[in-house]
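Justification of computing resources. Each target in the renewal requires a structure prediction run like the one illustrated here; the chain below, 557 residues long, is used simply to show the kind of job we budget for.
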Amino acid sequence: MPHSSSAGIRRRVFLAGAAAGLGAAGGVVRAGFTGRADRPGTDGEPFAAGTTLMAVTARPDGPGYRRLADGPGWPRIVRSDIADPRPGRADRRTPLAAFVHFTDLHITDVQHPLRYEFLRAGSPKAWRPQEALTVAGAVSLVERVNDLRGGPATGAPLSFVMTTGDNTDNNATIELDWFLTAMNGGTCTPDTGEPGHYEGVQDSGLELFWHPESLLRDLDSLAGFPKLEGFLGAATKPVHSPGLAIPWYSTLGNHDGLSGGCYASGHSAIAAAATGSRKLQTVPPGEARTLMAGEGRGTDPAGHCVEVLLKRGYEARTVTPDARRAPFSMREYLATHLDPDHVGPGPAGHGYTAANLAEGTLYYAFPVADGVIGISLDSTDPGGGKAGSIGHGQLKWLDETLTRHRDEYALVFSHHPSWSMNNGTPDPARPAETRHSGAELLRLLGSHRNVVAWINGHSHCNRIRPRRTFWEICTASHIDSPQLARVIEVTDNHDGTLSLFTTLIESAAPPRSYHHDFSRTGLASLYRELAANAQGADPSFPGAPTDRNAELLLHRP
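Resulting structure tokens:
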């Protein structure tokens, strides 16, 4: 590991710039570095402003639909599960890296013919009333990051954003375009089919779904959801994003690569339904529950059960076909990231390179800072199934990459956390290749002393777990309440320990919405409010206090 002097470390520079360079298979994407990282942190103004250290959006206790307001902030908790804190470290420490973690944005085309809203017949939580506002919500999160003045704990410049998958919701080409526009900047219109004519479940007349512009006594209106005349028109109007002001990197999630996050999108029936004119809206409750149980067990990765449902003639509506809803292949996913029109703040490819495209791989390494390397993994099973795993070739590449960079601290990123990687459905492109579980990945990472953190999402829950020599950090989603992202800062305490500071952030939208305000900011506030009131919302998603704002100590390798 690097053993720089204190003065040397104070001169570290690590603001990542545009990348150019090489090779997913053992290569590292090259980045330039500028800036300084020598400011002590106080967890106070101005660097804590806009974070959950200062205030957290709160839904007042009580039954029924409730408006939101600012609540007290969450304190930072010191965790000594791996190493003990030593006095005076705040005066000695110097920052090594500071960045932001996005995950599970779930940018959603709610008019897509093959949305899985019909599963709500089996469970209220299978559909979200806030889904039509995902683009406005993502843009507001981008605005929050742009407003941050530096790392809340150290004041160090934020050098990049990493988004760890489920950037899109249903493997749809148009969703990928909206996601890239939100991140890079520009204007998009979250509307498909006939322009200006909404064709989704929220004007279907089905009591399963919230009808914001109707007096229908639907499931959500009976729970107090408001009537909002003009909501659907506003939700499908153009949205402008300023784009991130710092570079960002991309990681694949199961909802990016699979229909509904579960089914291999290359299946002809699924691809045909995605661009067709028939939108299935509801099925018998028993069928919905059976399908959901199968998704949980991963028993039908190819989606044959969905094909059967599509043929049974259940409740459906005719919608306007739209070729932009077509599922994208992984080659198309890579090519779109590499398109010069999608560079934004950089780097070119957002981590992916021409070597990835040539080799058909979705993993890469990139320099984070002087003495710090980042590694993005592909944990999605291309053969189907939402649980995730790692192919043997990728595991071997990871082992070799960590060995080659053994004198650098390593930050590992993936979509799935260790506890969700138990699938192992064969890769259709490599049917004989062994797939490896989260437990196997933990063992490999633990065998490399330079690994300091494994950072992931998928579970939509804040969870931080000690892994003997490193920390596993899982961040909540930005579609389900409480809609959070996380700032992570890595520091050297110059006493034989490192500290990882994790600080949760919300979007820039005010907690309090105004139901007549359909501006971009007003819709982003409403997005938060609807999510907080969604039926079936999981109260465990915020995590325990120790999973939120923390100082995570570990021994310096």
